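Structure tokens please, single chain.
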Amino acid sequence: MRKIIVEVEMSLDGCIGGEDMTFWKHAAPLRSDDVQKYLDDILFEPDALLMGEKTYKFFAEVWPQRDGKAADYINEMPKYVASRSLQEPLEWNATLIKGDVVEEIKKLKEQPGKSLVQYGVGELTRTMLKAGLIDEIRVLILPFTYGKGARIFDHMEVSVMKLLEVKTFDSGAVALWYQPQESE
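Here you go.
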């Protein structure tokens, strides 16, 4: 069975970047070589991506403009997009998840292959977390405060997490790997 891994980058005060390019301008200098290797390792781990509509639109605009090994890999891999408003056909090697999102993602997990990665946190994350579909949440905390925008677990229910791994980086960034646990 494939694992579902959620990867998110956030500021020290819990803000996530999303489409806010000023967040990424602050984050970029903190991506030391070891942070970039960590992010590349995550990118090359799955054979498909899971995305909500906002991430899909943002990534589909940004990634096809890039070149290099990482860009080639992400541009070629299949993407599965959860959306209530997008219509097929989707561009950028993407497939719209139709019907019951939870049931369709369960089917994706059961298929042979490597893991599935979701970048960012949002409504799709909440849905998968509530349904017990997420195997790992990898949080990269970047050493700056941002003070605005969405926070990593806004609008989420109580979820107990088991710490799996901690990584520290030259820039002062820290990666925390968690496994969601059954909540009582």
